[in-house]
Request: fold
Amino acid sequence: MKNKRVAFGATAAAFTLPAIAMAGGVDRSPQSAFLLYEGKNYAEFTLGNLNPDVSGVASPLLGGRSSGEVLTNYTLVNSGVNWVINDNLNLAFIIDKPFGANVDYPLGTGYFAQGTLAELDTVSYTALARYKFASQFSIFGGLRYQTLKANATIPFVRGYNIDAPEEGAWGYVLGIGWEKPEIAAKVALTYNSAIDYDLTTNESSALGTLSSSAPVKTPQSVNLEFQTGIATNTLLFGSVRWVDWEQFGIDPAMYGAMTGQPLVSYNGPTTTYTIGLGYKFNDKWSGAISYAYDTPLDGYTSNLNPVNGYNSIGAAATYTWNQLKITAAIRYYDVGDAETAAGKIAPAGIFTGNSAIGAAVRIGYYF
Reply:
C-alpha cells in the first residue's frame, strides 16, 4: 500500500493545480475532500501560479481594437492536515482560496473597456471529520467559514466604481466514500454547500455615490473523485466537478439602475472532467499525466470574465524521501472562445485562440 500511496501523490497534484477563472465560473480550487483518505497523519502545503494569455478584439461597432492581455497572473497558497484518531475516525483541516478573479484591461489600447479593473478574493477554512465503517464505506462532513471581498472599476459605464469590503459567512460539507486498499481504490463523493453573504457595497459613478448592501451567494458544488490500481505500480485517477454557477452573482443597486443588469451573473452550471494515469518508477520517483475538460456555457460572457471553458493537459512528478514527498506539476490550458456583450451591443468583444499555463509545487509530510 505504501508504494501505491506514493504514486497517488503525483496524481493529486496533477489535477489540483490552480484553475483559470473562466466563463463557467471563477473556480480556483477544486474544494477536494480527498485529504481525508491519506490513511495516516499527514500535512501538505501547495504553492501555485497561473499565467493566462487572454486577449480579444472589439466588434467593428466599437472600433475593432485589440484589448491587450486582460487577465493577470495570480498565485495561490493552499494547505491542509489530516489527523488519524483511531481505526474508524480521522479529522482534517483545510485552508484554500476557492474562488477568485483578477481582470486588468490595459490603458492605451483604444479598446472600449480599457482601464477596466476587477478583483474577487475568497479564503475558506474547512474542518472535516470522517467515520469509517467495517464495510469499507465511510461518511464525512464538516463546517466551512469563508471570507469574500471584491472591487471593480468600469470606466465605460459612466466611470463606475465599486468596493465591497471583506465579509465572512458559513457553509457546510457532506460526503460519502469507499476504499479498497488491496487495489489502491478510493472513491469520494462530496457536496459543498452554497454560502450566502450580505455584502456592503460602496458605489460611485457620474451619477454620484451610494452605500448599500447586495446579496451574494458562492455556488454549491458536487465533486466525484476516484483512483484505482490497474496494473503493478499504475493508477487510474480522475474527478468530475459540477458547480451551480447560476447561484453566483453580484447585483449592486447603482450598477443595476444604470444598466438594468447584474454586475456579475452566469446562465448555467458547468462540469469539469479530469482523467489521468499515475506510475511509480521506483521507491523515490513517481509521475502522472492527466487531461481535463471544462464545459462551456451558451450565450455571451461578461467583460469581467471573457473566457468560456477549456481543454487542458497536465504532468506531475513526485520525489519521496522517508516521510517527505515533494511534487512539482505543470498544466497547459487551451481556453475556450468567448464573446462578450456591452449593453445592447453583442458581440462587443471576441476572444479566441487564448491559453494559460499553470504550475504548482506541493510539499507533503507523513507524521
In short: The chain has one domain: 2-366. The helical segments are 2-15, 253-259. The first strand starts at residue 42 and ends at 53.
